[in-house]
């Protein structure tokens, strides 16, 4: 078994309104920053022991499918690193 | 005949629902989620509140608690299930109903009376109304914007599963009458069976004559024949 950190990033699908990101963008503009768009995402770092990085990825993927992301509104990606 | 009102940690409209149902002469009891559904359950309310502090997404945690497997099974067998506000979020998160309720367009919590247009009347939840009737029921939510991909909304509409839409006092559905940016103005919808419904507005807060309008009574009467 090897120690891994699986990083799951969950973001709204393109086209789904993100009012919190919009509010944050406006606040940055009020501070004088110039920007065109801002997108936010949730990032989950999961420490786990697995036989291989494929195994770690598969398990993190299932965690995203079953809880961390809502497939109706979210896309997600998984990155796996040895720790 | 007993309607089970499922209480999760953070539910806070469970007692309101119990009282509103009692006012209508409908027997109901609050059930702690860890205790499972009682054998004599003839209807199920998923009440409003902030189950699990709305962690991750509103309703996400409660939707994956063991009692929801029992609720889904009962729903599939024809037991009436009504999800209100947080219960509606739980309903969508658990797959009882399609789509998702997410952050209001305003990014704010909104607590206000709204008008709803009754889209169909051949369901237990709307049999008390006329088609197109406008009813006034309050909302109280930060994550009530109905979101669903366009093609699936079209399917939902083709299947006639939209139950309530936000409208103005005249029954016109428009952006101006939509309090939270819900797609299609959807405020409430049916699951696979007509006995399963979720809605963001609170019918239990529009039932007792002492606290204001009573337009929500008809929705809760959906349990009367259960």
Automatic annotation (TrEMBL), chain A:
Coiled-coil features, chain-numbered ranges: none
Enzyme class, spelled out: ligase
Pathway, per record: Purine metabolism; IMP biosynthesis via de novo pathway; 5-amino-1-(5-phospho-D-ribosyl)imidazole from N(2)-formyl-N(1)-(5-phospho-D-ribosyl)glycinamide: step 1/2
GO terms for biological process, alphabetical: 'de novo' IMP biosynthetic process
Keyword Transferase part of the UniProt annotation: no
Subcellular location: Cytoplasm
GO MF annotation list: ATP binding; phosphoribosylformylglycinamidine synthase activity
Superkingdom of source: Archaea
Reactions performed catalytically: N(2)-formyl-N(1)-(5-phospho-beta-D-ribosyl)glycinamide + L-glutamine + ATP + H2O = 2-formamido-N(1)-(5-O-phospho-beta-D-ribosyl)acetamidine + L-glutamate + ADP + phosphate + H(+)
Entry EC number(s): 6.3.5.3
Keyword DNA repair: no
GO CC annotations on file: cytoplasm
Keywords: ATP-binding, Cytoplasm, Ligase, Nucleotide-binding, Purine biosynthesis
Assembly information from the UniProt record: Part of the FGAM synthase complex composed of 1 PurL, 1 PurQ and 2 PurS subunits.
NCBIfam families xrefs: phosphoribosylformylglycinamidine synthase subunit PurS, PRK05974.1
UniProt record similarity statement: Belongs to the PurS family.
Reported function: Part of the phosphoribosylformylglycinamidine synthase complex involved in the purines biosynthetic pathway. Catalyzes the ATP-dependent conversion of formylglycinamide ribonucleotide (FGAR) and glutamine to yield formylglycinamidine ribonucleotide (FGAM) and glutamate. The FGAM synthase complex is composed of three subunits. PurQ produces an ammonia molecule by converting glutamine to glutamate. PurL transfers the ammonia molecule to FGAR to form FGAM in an ATP-dependent manner.
Protein name: Phosphoribosylformylglycinamidine synthase subunit PurS
Organism: Natronococcus occultus SP4
From TrEMBL, chain B:
Active site: 85, 202, 204
Pathways involved: Purine metabolism; IMP biosynthesis via de novo pathway; 5-amino-1-(5-phospho-D-ribosyl)imidazole from N(2)-formyl-N(1)-(5-phospho-D-ribosyl)glycinamide: step 1/2
Record GO terms (molecular function): ATP binding; glutaminase activity; phosphoribosylformylglycinamidine synthase activity
Keyword check for Cytoplasm: yes
Any GO BP: 'de novo' IMP biosynthetic process
Primary location recorded for the protein, binned into one broad class: cytoplasm
PROSITE patterns noted in UniProt: GATASE_TYPE_1
Assembly notes: Part of the FGAM synthase complex composed of 1 PurL, 1 PurQ and 2 PurS subunits.
Family annotation (NCBIfam families): FGAM_synth_I (TIGR01737), PRK03619.1 (NF002957)
PANTHER family: PHOSPHORIBOSYLFORMYLGLYCINAMIDINE SYNTHASE SUBUNIT PURQ
Protein name (database record): Phosphoribosylformylglycinamidine synthase subunit PurQ
Taxonomic source organism: Natronococcus occultus SP4
